[in-house]
Amino acid sequence: MDIASVAGMLIANIAILWAIYLGGSFSIFVDIPSIVLVIGGTGASTMMKWGMDDLKTLLTVYMKSFFNTMPNSKNMIDEVIKLSEIARRESVFALEKVPVEDKFLKKAVTLAADNRPPEVISSILGLEISALEERHGKGAEMLEAMAGDGPAYGMIGTLIGLVQMLQNMSDPSSIGPAMAVALLTTLYGALIMAVFTNPMAAKLKQFSKAEATKMNIIVAGILGIVAGENPRTIREKLESFLAPKDRTPTEEKKE
Amino acid sequence: MDIASVAGMLIANIAILWAIYLGGSFSIFVDIPSIVLVIGGTGASTMMKWGMDDLKTLLTVYMKSFFNTMPNSKNMIDEVIKLSEIARRESVFALEKVPVEDKFLKKAVTLAADNRPPEVISSILGLEISALEERHGKGAEMLEAMAGDGPAYGMIGTLIGLVQMLQNMSDPSSIGPAMAVALLTTLYGALIMAVFTNPMAAKLKQFSKAEATKMNIIVAGILGIVAGENPRTIREKLESFLAPKDRTPTEEKKE
Amino acid sequence: MDIASVAGMLIANIAILWAIYLGGSFSIFVDIPSIVLVIGGTGASTMMKWGMDDLKTLLTVYMKSFFNTMPNSKNMIDEVIKLSEIARRESVFALEKVPVEDKFLKKAVTLAADNRPPEVISSILGLEISALEERHGKGAEMLEAMAGDGPAYGMIGTLIGLVQMLQNMSDPSSIGPAMAVALLTTLYGALIMAVFTNPMAAKLKQFSKAEATKMNIIVAGILGIVAGENPRTIREKLESFLAPKDRTPTEEKKE
Amino acid sequence: MDIASVAGMLIANIAILWAIYLGGSFSIFVDIPSIVLVIGGTGASTMMKWGMDDLKTLLTVYMKSFFNTMPNSKNMIDEVIKLSEIARRESVFALEKVPVEDKFLKKAVTLAADNRPPEVISSILGLEISALEERHGKGAEMLEAMAGDGPAYGMIGTLIGLVQMLQNMSDPSSIGPAMAVALLTTLYGALIMAVFTNPMAAKLKQFSKAEATKMNIIVAGILGIVAGENPRTIREKLESFLAPKDRTPTEEKKE
Amino acid sequence: MDIASVAGMLIANIAILWAIYLGGSFSIFVDIPSIVLVIGGTGASTMMKWGMDDLKTLLTVYMKSFFNTMPNSKNMIDEVIKLSEIARRESVFALEKVPVEDKFLKKAVTLAADNRPPEVISSILGLEISALEERHGKGAEMLEAMAGDGPAYGMIGTLIGLVQMLQNMSDPSSIGPAMAVALLTTLYGALIMAVFTNPMAAKLKQFSKAEATKMNIIVAGILGIVAGENPRTIREKLESFLAPKDRTPTEEKKE
């Protein structure tokens, strides 16, 4: 779990709740029909836009964007290098017995141990990577659509409230509270956008990019192992995916 | 029919109508000249933007975006595999007698049974796919243009109402209701955008993508059948179009 | 003339004028300085953005976007097929005497009758197509720029009016009308955008696309004629540019 | 100098000043701190965004976008053709003595007279063209950034003014004027965007495109001259860069 | 340090503070809960969007965008030419002893002195360049995301303040100040966008472009040195990266 996401969500909510608390009552910020309109409307538009199958995966993808740790490419390189050393000492077939946690690496290792030709390994794993990107891409797209629908239904709610208030101004003392309620839907819409969907859409894109990099490292590593390259050459190749500061220092590699 | 679209439309309307109902009278939300201005204006701009031929197909495309079920690629693969097994057991010419519901698959099967060369099959079906994408693309474009015109005419109506109200403020009690009416066009415009066009445009794009995937599966399948490949190889090829969780488990394929 | 464009323009104007008429006087919507500011400003920005040569063609392009009929690719195919039949029966040189209305087709026929090599015909006509797309593209760009400048000058006018009103609030009864006048420029700007430029820009793009398709059909047809292909093959090739429903049914083509 | 740019600037200013004049005093539209805030802020953001070197060229580029005449490709073709006739009659080396006003044409002629190989001429002149596009592109980017910063600082100024006014409402008669002043920064920001930067950015792009076309004509012409092509062939080639109506009529070319 | 960035930041702040100072008290522009909401919220969204590793580099990148001098390609060319002259006079191996300040140039020189083959030098340095662009690109992306979140949380704060004010209008004299405080979050959000993030994001992009150009010059130069080209040829090649006015005049190069 990446602490940043959860901490960010907590901080955003505390900052907002504190601002509400200082101004007095919490209850003036809760209006059931407004909540139903904005959340119901945003959900309804999401249902209209996607088929049932995609909707079912939305929650999974949302949770994933929130709780999953960013993949660590550096550690993955170390793991691949360890496998390459085993393959060197014993043989590619010995890899199947090595315990491997990462599912994608496991699949890659199995393909290598099955003695499948490199182009088959590369194409099967490549399909997996593009399927993941497609899936995460659709998730980000759904969240971004919700980030647009929230404020739209917020505006619809505020307009409905304003029309009702303006048609009924006989009691001046009710104007203020009526307008306050009308503004709540706009506030809810803005919260949906800024706090509950946009950050997750952005995270999902970051995550998808990092995951694809990690998978590409695995593919390049397994192909190197299958080709019988020595571990040092493989490491040099794989580290090209890292930022300079994360690479093994050059001197160390030389000797 | 995909229940999600219809259910979404119902939920959106119920949420909005409930918010109106709780605030009192429905009638204050109905103003004929405002409706004429926003709907008439949005329709008029659509007429100015497209030729007569495109306008005629707009309704069809709208209904389609709403009621059509998302194509199920998984079932289509099963159907293609069944055909490939028949072609294996008997011959490609036997396919013509197999009852096939999907129009595009029917066309593909007919071309195969006619013994047309693969490149002809591929180019004829390819043209069909790009024609479908073009048609759906234009439909989505028209709906998106309407999603922009609705709020624009909404703003024009509100400005007209405000000018009329501001020029005529002798009776203070009429100011509120006059402004309420002026805001109605903005509300109508927002509804056109958020409820009645944007979701359909998004659905149409999803639908078009899924339909093209299904068609590409059919093309790849028929070409495999014509080339005399065995059903298992064809399935493996076609499942590359699916998300991993929808594929036949690897173990099963091995034996 | 495409009835849709003109009818659309009429409907938009009638809807707006009716909304004004129902609210009372027309005269409160006419303010000469506001008109001068918004139309003058939008025109001035257009002059600043383009050179004199482009400005001269703006009116032509505007009228074209408005009154020109969407080119009919289906009829053009029939005409090209008729020419191909004449070329078959008699010779390519006989085409020069056939009366041809479409200018571009005429040019293509002349090039063919001149016995120019196919690659020359193709490159000369290709240049013509890209020049048309460039011209229409620039026209659409100019109209879209005006659709942005209209509201911008509208806002400038409203801000000027508001500042003047706010500095001079001694007579409360004048505040309403002064604000009404201030809002007029925003209204004019919105009308320029939604009614008088955006639809034409969109139409021009549609038109340009359809015209280019028609021209590409002519090029493909003439090249087929020059290559001595038989009319049925040419038709099959040209109909690939059409939507399925507009194509000659397959059965008919078979015999 | 292209009259359109200067005339456009004059018309825009006259329309705005007339609207101010009709409403009374000019002085209510001048507020020194507001001017300092919006112009200072926009300038400051521009400084933060670009390095010192780019800032120095901003004024040059601005003036250029304003006063430079759109390059006339038609005249340039005539000039290149004249040179090609001289080269034909005498020799390529004779070109060096022909007086040539356009700097880029001069450079091209010098390269030709120096007997440099065509690929060298082409690559040297090509670098020049891309350097010009880069330079003009950066100029347009800077102006567009200013067109965004102007309204942003305008909004900041209005918010500051509103906060000050709202905190100090003891004297009701001062509210109007205070709000008028607060709105001035928004007006200034809108003027920076719509009148003083956006049009120049658009012009610069047009200009850059036209200049690049003219330069490409020169390159194609000089390469034709160096290859010893006859002037008629060169003209036919160069006119492919022009719109049909600007080309020499076909009949004329035939004889 | 590029004076433009720091000077711009100072000017922007002075202009804003002066506008506040002229209007009276500074203290009415400071509201701790509003500051906590906008800065806390923007920071929280940034945490939700990126993983811990990226967040750590944000401050470094921010400072860099602010204080780093735009790389000077012209000086770098002179330095590379000096190296090429040494390599000519003595040998490539002599380069290792030449003191070189620029880290990337140092690495390039070391690779050359190590006698690595040109394609290895080119690929190693190329990876470095794309890693830098990726890093700076992510930095600009983070700052742009903050430039969007600032105003979003600003609007959320203003809506919260308005709802609180509207629910509590019993004391008319408190309405103005309450609304003033409500507007502060919008002001803070606008300042975050226009002054504290957008300019740095733009600068980072400029900087990254200029840095990549400088690095490409170094790569081209080192490859020329390794290939044993003469310094004049190398200079001609490297100056193709500069604007015409920064190049060595042609005459000088001839002799």
Count helical runs of chain A. Answer: 9
The multimeric state of the shown protein is homopentamer
**Largest interface (CB < 8 Å):** C-D, 42 and 49 residues
Structural class of chain A: mainly alpha
**Biggest sheet layout of chain A:** none
- Average pLDDT value of chain A? 87
Number of strands of chain A: 0
Would you identify the regions of chain A where 5 or more consecutive residues have pLDDT less than 50?
251-255
Order of helices and strands of chain A: HHHHHHHHH
Shape by Cα distribution of chain A: elongated
Cα radius of gyration of chain A in angstroms: 26 Å
What portion of residues of chain A is helical? over 70%
User: Terminal Cα separation of chain A, in Å?
Assistant: 38 Å
Taken as a percent bin, the fraction of beta residues of chain A is under 5%
Word description of this protein:
- Five copies of one chain form a homopentamer.
- Chain A is mostly helical and 255 residues long.
- The first copy, chain A, is built from nine helices and no strands.
- The first copy, chain A, has helices at residues 3-22, 32-49, 52-67, 73-89, 103-113, 118-166, 175-226, 231-239, 250-254.
- In chain A, helix 2 packs parallel to helix 7 (175-226) and helix 5 (103-113) runs parallel beside helix 7.
- The two termini of chain A are 38 Å apart.
Quickly describe the structure:
Five copies of one chain form a homopentamer. Chain A has nine helices and no strands.
Helices and strands, with pairings:
The structure is a homopentamer of 255-residue chains.
Chain A: H1 3-22, H2 32-49, H3 52-67, H4 73-89, H5 103-113, H6 118-166, H7 175-226, H8 231-239, H9 250-254
Helix pairs in contact in A: 2-6, 2-7, 3-6, 3-7, 4-7, 4-8, 5-7, 6-7, 7-8
